[in-house]
Backbone:
């Protein structure tokens, strides 16, 4: 199902696979120079990792996760923690479906939503390593029908611009409402030609899902392989992500998968996954389990150089554009000194420590991933509801790793006896929504981009 979008656009635009040295049709003088690598390019690792702080207690984090699913505060949750090349935890908690309860385990698959963007950046990087692509390759050379609202901007957009949300569009999440309204990707992508621009490509940041998904068409043109198949062959299989899949058909085919949940007057209600954002595979197409995420974290902390070489990781994780808007709320407001976007990842200065991060959300699913290169630590947390409660678990783990004074990111007693868990210090809602949103409803609740 999900492959229809990128495949249809590729055929609609009649793409020809160019040489990466192909001469642009626009005179070179009209183009601003683009770097061969996103700046800054770093070696890896930048410095030897420091140990996590004394008292870093994985058993405590697992107990908190257990507490989060008690009484169906959240239906189900999966968590993976890796450190120094070892998997410290990869477990499931709670149930896959409140109406037909089955336990979540290490192999239960969750929808990753915008955590998928890191897979897109990684796949593009592998093609750069192959010599099939360059970070400064022009999207228009690979997608001849691609249009922005002026010819110079159209010719300017590079692979790195797409992966770092620097296409130049004025609106964040441009045309997401069309996707939420059940439109096909190839129809919506053509609307980019009428979207207002805020800057020249590469000069400013605006988070995107539709424009980001152009990388799927570039992958097809550069490799001759559909995006979903390329992710399977280049990432899932070599990393041993045996439960991972792409798209709606992929999650349905999983032996164990967590259904999305929304609130009703009577508590959580399980739904079928919405197909809408699955139509943007690079932005939101991946499904994975805690066991898969453990392998993904090991690879991105440098322990699978046979698949993801160290210089590639350094490039993927290096800040490209400042995103100060990410510092305005919750634990980000209290802990972050700076925020940037890299290539499918966010990069935070978290109380003086670099944290490579992404979050994702679609209807009934949430997730967060963080890498601490300076501590050789990786964490992934996935859950199958729209609750914000588990989001406080991540800063709780990071604070312990760094030895920071404890903050009450989760309103839970140290003996785990509290029945009132809250994320980011927020108060619980006075009452649940009056009705379950319709499957095709639009708005923030079903947006893949919040939280990001």
Residues:
């Amino acid at each position: 199902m999900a492959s229809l979008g990128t495949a249809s656009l590729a055929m609609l635009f009649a793409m020809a696979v160019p040489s990466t040295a192909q001469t642009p049709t626009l005179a070179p003088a009209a183009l601003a120079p683009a770097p061969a690598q996103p700046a800054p390019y770093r070696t890896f690792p930048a410095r030897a990792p420091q140990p996590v702080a004394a008292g870093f207690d994985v058993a405590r984090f697992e107990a908190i996760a257990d507490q989060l699913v008690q009484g169906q505060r959240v239906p189900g949750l999966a968590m993976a923690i890796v450190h120094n090349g070892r998997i410290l935890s990869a477990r499931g908690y709670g149930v896959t479906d409140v109406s037909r309860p089955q336990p979540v385990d290490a192999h239960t698959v969750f929808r990753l939503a915008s955590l998928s963007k890191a897979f897109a950046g990684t796949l593009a990087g592998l093609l750069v390593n192959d010599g099939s692509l360059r970070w400064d390759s022009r999207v228009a050379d690979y997608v001849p029908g691609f249009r922005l609202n002026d010819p110079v901007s159209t010719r300017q957009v590079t692979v790195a611009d797409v992966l770092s949300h620097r296409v130049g569009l004025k609106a964040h999440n441009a045309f997401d409402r069309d996707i939420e309204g059940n439109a096909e990707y190839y129809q919506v992508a053509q609307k980019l030609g009428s979207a207002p621009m805020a800057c020249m490509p590469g000069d400013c940041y605006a988070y995107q899902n539709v424009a980001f998904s152009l990388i799927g068409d570039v992958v097809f043109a550069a490799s001759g392989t559909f995006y979903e198949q390329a992710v399977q062959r280049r990432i899932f299989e070599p990393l041993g992500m045996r439960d991972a899949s792409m798209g709606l058909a992929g999650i349905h085919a999983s032996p164990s998968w967590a259904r999305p949940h929304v609130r009703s007057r009577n508590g959580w209600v399980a739904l079928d996954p919405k197909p809408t954002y699955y139509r943007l595979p690079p932005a939101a197409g991946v499904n994975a389990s805690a066991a898969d995420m453990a392998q993904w974290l090991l690879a991105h902390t440098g322990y699978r150089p046979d698949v993801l070489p160290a210089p590639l990781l350094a490039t993927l994780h290096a800040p490209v554009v400042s995103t100060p808007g990410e510092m305005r709320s919750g634990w980000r407001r209290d802990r972050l000194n700076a925020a940037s976007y890299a290539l499918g990842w966010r990069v935070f200065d978290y109380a003086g420590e670099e944290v490579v991060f992404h979050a994702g959300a679609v209807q009934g699913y949430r997730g967060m991933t963080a890498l601490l290169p300076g501590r050789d630590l990786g964490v992934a947390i996935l859950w199958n509801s729209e609750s914000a409660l588990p989001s406080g678990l991540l800063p709780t783990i990071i604070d312990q790793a760094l030895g920071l004074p404890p903050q009450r990111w989760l309103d839970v007693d140290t003996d785990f006896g509290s029945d009132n868990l809250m994320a980011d210090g927020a108060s619980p809602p006075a009452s649940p929504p009056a009705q379950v949103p319709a499957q095709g409803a639009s708005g923030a609740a079903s947006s893949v981009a919040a939280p990001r």
In short: The longest strand covers residues 353-362. Residues 3-17+121-223 form one domain. The chain has 16 helices and 13 strands. The CA atoms of residues 215 and 282 lie 7 Å apart.
